[in-house]
Design a protein that fits this description.
Shape: elongated
Strand content: 15-25%
CATH class of the largest domain: Alpha Beta
Radius of gyration: 24 Å
Number of helices: 15
CATH superfamily of the largest domain: P-loop containing nucleotide triphosphate hydrolases
């Protein structure tokens, strides 16, 4: 399979992302090939062979499936080199674990800067002294690295694979558990044999012949919990309940059909949306709960940022670009400016220019990517919320929509 240039505008894999960082010609690509057991990265004696970040999905024996991200040398120079370094640093937004590769007992400002950035992004890291078959790390150098970083230096060689098994074990115990452990979407809300109805409008934004990812994820999670999923169009929910007299344990709707679902689902049946389900699953739910009511505080001239996790065809009645701005404007009665940013693209202005940030469910990115996306706003004190929670709030059904997850208990 060919190498894949990493697209910083989107993140499509939920597997743990392991980034390889270091100076040019330190053997980063050789390390990736060694871990993968195949030649997936270009290796050359010439410094600077790797240009843009490259990612590859594969399985590390004894560990599991991961995405390895090979980056350009942090010491690249010149106008083009600066752009490569910038793209390298942007990968920190998607990384679950960093491997910092050093050689020849060399440590300086580049390494200091990377470690500081790892810590700023809350990324665990391993420092690897590569090419130890040519020059072993000295005791003095190992003490220096430990003193500067509080982390022990790991001796390795991609050439002779010394300490290979130990490195795999170190990766296994260092990477955050949430990066590879698959939690449940609904397991704390439903029990064996429960019936869950999923309300899925078939409209202009629905992909032809397919269902959107959150709907598929919900169905799979319901089945994994030995429950029953019943999928209905929004027009069929009320007739189905009336005809069958079934009392579902939970109803989940597309956020755009919230008003119809609220009217057709009896109040004694818990109701939420796919977007709010994902908000609790991988978003910053606690901060969403704090930020959502701030919609009522918006004033004339305020600016709202909407963050989509993927790039997609824009429909004439797009949820992020059209519907949510319209609903918020109608709800507040204020003249508000809106910016929409797709994927992981750079924001068009400082985050502090915004009075509110609204994040989509994030079905196409990892939990780490989503949290990193929100952190600048949270640190700056800018309220954050979620598409589904914002929609429920302006439509007057917010308390009902969040109730299943705020209670957080099984029936």
């Amino acid at each position: 399979m060919p190498d894949i240039i990493i697209e910083m505008s989107r993140g499509r894999e939920s597997k743990p992302h392991i980034g390889i960082y270091g100076r040019r010609n330190n053997g980063k690509s050789s390390l990736i090939n060694c871990l993968a057991g195949q030649d997936i990265a270009i290796v050359s004696a010439q410094a600077g062979t790797t240009t843009d970040p490259v990612k590859k999905s594969f399985e590390i024996t004894g560990f599991g499936p991961v995405i390895l991200v090979d980056t350009a040398g942090i010491d690249d120079s010149g106008d083009l080199g600066s752009k490569r370094v910038d793209r390298t640093l942007r990968t920190l937004e998607i990384i679950d674990l960093a491997l910092l590769v050093v050689t020849d007992n060399l440590w300086g400002k580049y390494e200091d800067d990377l470690v500081a950035r790892f810590r700023n992004h809350d990324i665990p890291f391993i420092i690897i002294h590569n090419k130890s078959d040519l020059q072993k790390p000295t005791s003095r150098f190992m003490e220096k690295v430990q003193g500067k970083t509080g982390t022990d230096l790991f001796e390795f060689s991609a050439a002779d694979k010394r300490n290979y098994e130990e490195l795999i074990e170190l990766i296994r115990i260092t990477i955050p558990e949430h990066s590879f452990k698959i939690p449940t979407l609904l397991g704390d809300l439903i029990s064996h044999g429960d019936i869950v109805i999923l309300i899925t409008p078939i409209d202009i934004e629905a992909p032809a012949g397919r269902m959107i990812l959150p709907q598929v994820q919900a169905i799979r999670d319901i089945l994994d919990n030995d429950a029953v999923a019943v999928v209905l169009k929004e027009t069929e929910a009320a007739p189905f309940l009336k005809k069958t007299r079934i009392m579902p344990a939970l109803a989940i709707t597309d956020s755009q059909a919230f008003a119809k679902a609220d009217a057709s689902i009896p109040p004694e049946i818990p109701l939420t949306s796919f977007s709010i389900m994902l908000a609790r699953f991988k978003g910053d739910f606690d901060n969403y709960l704090i930020g959502t009511p701030k919609i009522s505080d918006l004033k004339d001239g305020d600016r709202v940022l909407l963050l989509e996790s993927c790039s997609h065809h824009v429909a004439c009645d797009d949820i992020g670009r059209v519907k949510i701005p319209r609903w918020i404007t109608n709800f507040t009665g204020k003249k508000i400016e809106y910016d929409v940013v797709a994927g992981l693209d750079v924001l068009p202005r400082p985050v502090t220019d915004y009075s509110l940030v609204i994040q989509c469910g994030g079905c196409m990115i990892t939990r780490k990517q989503l949290h990193n996306r929100l952190q600048p706003a949270i640190k700056a004190g800018v309220p954050v919320t979620n598409y589904g929670m914002a929609i429920a709030y302006v439509q007057g059904i917010y308390e009902r929509a969040i109730a299943p997850f705020v209670k957080g208990n099984k029936r």
